[in-house]
Amino acid sequence: MQDETDGSGELIERKPRSKTRRVLKILALVLSVLVLVVAGLGTWLYNRFSGNLHTVHLGGDTRKSLGQEKPDAFGRTPIDILVIGTDSRNTQQDCNLGGDCNVGGGGFGNADVEMLVHVSADRSNATVMSIPRDTIVDVPACTDPTDSANRTQGYRGMVNSALAYGPQCQMETIHQLTGIPISHFMMVTFSGVVSMSDAVGGVNVCVNDNVYDTYSHLKLAKGTHNLKGNAALEFVRSRHAFGDGGDLGRLAAQHLYLSSMMRSMRSAGTLTDPARLFGLADSATKALTVDSGLGNVTSLLGLANDVAKVPTSRMTFTTMQTETDPNDPNRLIVGPDAQALFATIANDQSLTSPGGGSASPSASASASASASASASPSASPSVSVSALADGGGSDSVAAGQIDVHVDNASGTRGRATQLADALTSQGFGSGTTAVTSPTTTTTTRLQYAPGDQAAAHTVATALGLPDSALSASSAGSGVTLVIGADWPSGTVFPGASGKPAPADTQQALNGASARTADETNGCAEVSHEQTVELNGVPMSPIQAYAEAKNVPDSAP
C-alpha cells in the first residue's frame, strides 16, 4: 500500500476501504433494483386490475337527476354508492349458477339486491340500507345513456325492474324514492359472489335450525358453517329459507353474510397474505361493473381506503321499512318510518351514535348534547324544527300544529307524496295533504295566508327553502307548498344553505332491523312456515331438511 502526504510533507497512511461502505453500496443497489421491480409489478397489477373492470357511463346532468352530496363545515364530502346484485345470466358461468340462461343476450337483468352504502363525510361511520326488491315504487322517466332507444316514460312497479333501463335509471329511481344523493354504483353478478367468497377463504355464517331451501338448493345443518363457492351464492340468494319466505328474511341473512365477509377481509390472514390479497383484488375487479367515475384502480383504492377507515362497530346494516301493499299481499310499499331513515342518511347522521356524523373533535360536546336531545323519548322533532325556524322566540309555531298543503306542479310523478311524507316524518301535522296540479310551474314557492307567516318559516326551514320562496297569499288558508320544476327530486331544496333539522334517529331505527358489522352473535332465522316444496308437498325448510336425507349439505 502506498502512503501519501498531507501537503506539509508529513506522511498519511491510507486506510483499507471500509467493509461497511461496501455493504451499504450493495444494499443501495439491491434496493434500487427492488424499487424498479416493484414499480414494474405495480404497473402490471394496475393494468391487470383496471382491465378486469367493466364500466358504464353516466349521462346528463347527474346533479339534477341523482343529487349532489354537500360538504360539511370542514369541506369533507360524504360518499353514497348504490350496490346492485343483478340476476342477469348473460355468461355461461352465471347461467350454470343461476339457471334461466340468457347467454350472450345482453341486458342488465333485475336489481334483486339493492344496498345504498353511505360513508360519512368524516369517515367515522357508515350506513348500509337494503331496499327490498318486492317494493312497489314510482319509476321515473329515464333513458339509458349507453342506449338512447332503451328508455321509459315512467311507471309504477317493482323497484328492481328499473335496472332494465340501465344502472343510471336504477340510481334515479332510488334517488327519487329516498331523496339521498347517489354518486356511484357498483354491480356484481352471481359468479362474482362465488369468486369473492372463495378469495377470502370462505365466509362464516350461522343458521338457527336445519334448513333446506328446495329453490336455491341451500342445505345446512343447524350451526355455523364456512361458505365457499356455490354454497355462498345459495345462502345470499335464498328467500324461502328465512323469515316468512319473503325478501325481508333474505335481506337479514345477507346482512349477516356481509358483516362476516367484511370481518374476514379485514382479518390479518387476508391482509398479510399476498396470494390471498391478490386473489381478492383480482376477483373483486373481475366481478364488478361500475360507473366511469370508479372505472380505474386508483379510484377503487381511494374508495377502499375510505371504507377501511370506518370501524366495523360503526358500520350499520339496515333495511328500509316497509308495509304490505294493500293491493297485493305479495308486494311491499314504503313504510312511514322510512322517511326518517332516508333523512338520517341524507343529513349524514350516524346510526351508531345518534346525532353523530361529521362533527369535529372540538364540537363533540355540543354534538352529544344535541344527540341526547334528539334521542330523548320526550323530545319531539317539531320542537327543534320550530326553534330553528324562529330562533325559539314567542312567534314560533310547533311543526305538529302545521298542516301543509303540498301541490305537485313539477311535472315529476310522486313529488307531492314524497315531500308530504318527509314533512310528516319530521313531526308536521297529520292533516298534511298531497295533490297533483293539472299544470306545471318553473319555480317552487311557499304561500301562506294572513297570520301564517311564522308557520311558513317553520316549513321553509325544514325543507331548506330560501326566504325568496315565501310569499303571502290572500286566497285560501294555512300554508301551501307548490313544487316547481326547479325541485325535481330530493327532500331538501337544491342549493339550500346549511343542513335541515336533524332527523329523529330513534324513529329511523324503528323496524329497520339494524345491526353493526362487528356483531358476531346471531344466526339467520330459519322459517317455520311452509315456504318450500319437496316432491310436490308444501313444507317448512326444517321439514325439508329432515326429508331430504339423500341430498348432500351445501357445506360441512
Main attributes of the structure:
8-stranded mixed beta sheet, disordered N terminus, Aminopeptidase, alpha/beta, 556 residues, 2 domains, 5-stranded mixed beta sheet
Would you write up a description of this structure?
By secondary structure, the chain is an alpha/beta fold. It has two domains: 62-349 and 527-547, Aminopeptidase (3-Layer(aba) Sandwich); 380-498, no CATH class. The chain is built from 17 helices and 27 strands. The chain has an eight-stranded mixed sheet, with helices on both faces. A five-stranded mixed sheet has the order 21-20-24-22-23, with helices on one face. A two-stranded antiparallel sheet has the order 1-2. A hairpin with a 2-residue loop joins strand 26 (532-534) and strand 27. Helix 5 (190-199) packs across helix 6 and helix 5 (190-199) packs antiparallel against helix 9 (274-287). The termini are far apart. Mean pLDDT is 79; it is low at 1-16, 89-99 and 354-395.
Task: Tell me the strand percentage band.
Answer: 15-25%
Q: What's the count of strands?
A: 27
Whole-number tally of structural domains: 2
In round numbers, the mean pLDDT is: 79
Helix content percent band: 25-40%
Give the radius of gyration: 29 Å
Q: What is the makeup of the main sheet? A: 8 strands, mixed
Helix-strand category: alpha/beta
Q: Which fold name is given in CATH as the topology of the largest domain?
A: Aminopeptidase
